[in-house]
Amino acid sequence: MEVRFQRLLIILLSLILLAGSILLILFNSKKNLVFFYTPTELIRSDSETEDIVRVGGYVEKGSIINKGNNSYSFNITDNINTITIQYNGFLPDLFKEEQGTVIEGKLIERSKVKAFKVFAKHDENYMPASIQKQLKQTDYWNKKY
Question: How far apart are CA 56 and CA 119, in angstroms?
């Protein structure tokens, strides 16, 4: 084989391997990407019952019901539609009414989700209590935090 032919062969094999690895990455990431629906998008989506979904929105004021034994029911809204969430477990410290949240769970009905995980959102001014305590002890605390 000529040197010229060997170079061409190496270049072609490299391109084939590169294209194959890019395709594998794209197909794998398509399966693993997780987006969340707003309540309106979930109601309009083609998701079927028993599907695992993520729903994001604001906790509706006055909707949190403590059923006892760490069992909760609350509504998430996007100011257009509302989804009822059922959750068994401890709610995050930042979870409260009129705050943003993302729920991961199983779709029971078009407007009802049985949550496995509850994530609470916070704004840019949030600071964990432990860090705040350390800052006060070291005299770095500033009221603007």
Answer: 9
Count, in order, helices (H) and strands (E) of the chain: 3, 6
Least confident of 12-21, 29-38, 117-126, 134-143: 134-143
- Structurally, the chain folds into a number of domains equal to 2
Is residue 10 over pLDDT 90?
A: yes
Largest CA-CA distance found in the chain, in angstroms, rounded: 79
Q: Which of 10-14, 28-32, 94-98, 126-130 holds the top average pLDDT?
A: 10-14
CA dihedral 120, 114, 59, 41 (to 10 degrees): 100
For 85, the domain range is 39-120
Report d(CA 38, CA 12) in Å as an integer: 46
68 and 14 share a domain?
A: no
The pair phi, psi for residue 20, each rounded to 5°, is -65, -45
Q: How far apart are CA 134 and CA 140, in angstroms?
A: 8
Q: What is the pLDDT of residue 117?
A: 93
**Would the pLDDT of 115 be above 90?**
yes
Within a domain: 47: yes
